[in-house]
Design a protein that fits this description.
4 strands
Length: about 190
């Protein structure tokens, strides 16, 4: 209906089209990227106002140093998450509302830190649809990069990548295989 179309247009006009998740320590130059052999240049805080100036892009926290959170100790993980939320809010003057786990790596501990933080949600790298029972501390998202063909984009919209990624399926299969082997070894050593 016309009312629905107008409401939809108003919603799109009111919301940013894209979110850029920033690792605040790297943007500040205090931390180095550890996931590149040779680090490319990163934007800095002087670039952020230009990025946000058109109202099309918003920025949200993505950790301080982009560390894989499950590998950190409890206090380090808390500092990595909360430090990024705090610094980004102070730098851009807008409270953060959504955190993005670095490399999509998270677990129950990280979800608890997010639950106690001021943000309203956290996104993972898990593709798929968020349903009523999806934890707001582990929201799925579907990445669109801009180089997809029309057919690929249509497939994405139809849910073609809404399941676990090949990497996650391989990790789950390897973990299940390790459990089967361990179970057989226990059975063998008891007999």
């Amino acid at each position: 209906t016309a009312t629905t179309e107008i409401s939809t247009l108003s919603l799109h006009a009111a919301l940013p089209i894209s979110t850029v998740f920033l690792p605040t320590g790297i943007i500040s130059g205090r931390e180095r990227s550890t996931w590149y052999h040779t680090s490319p240049p990163f934007m800095d805080w002087d670039d952020v106002p230009d990025l946000m100036s058109g109202g099309v892009v918003e920025v949200q926290p993505h950790g301080v140093a982009h560390f894989a959170l499950p590998k950190l100790g409890d206090e380090e993980a808390k500092d990595e998450i909360l430090g990024s939320i705090t610094e980004l809010g102070e730098r851009v003057g807008v409270p953060s509302h959504t955190y993005s786990y670095a490399a999509g790596r998270y677990g129950p501990r990280e979800q608890a830190i997010i639950a106690a933080s001021p943000v309203r949600g956290a996104v993972t790298c898990d593709a798929g649809i968020n349903r009523a029972d999806t934890a707001w501390t582990a929201l799925r998202r579907t990445a669109v990069y801009g180089w997809e063909s029309d057919g690929e984009f249509a497939s994405i919209l139809e849910g073609a990548i809404d399941g676990p990624s090949a990497v996650r399926r391989a990790r789950a299969a390897a973990a299940a295989a390790r459990l089967r082997v361990a179970s057989r070894l226990r059975t063998f050593s008891i007999a």
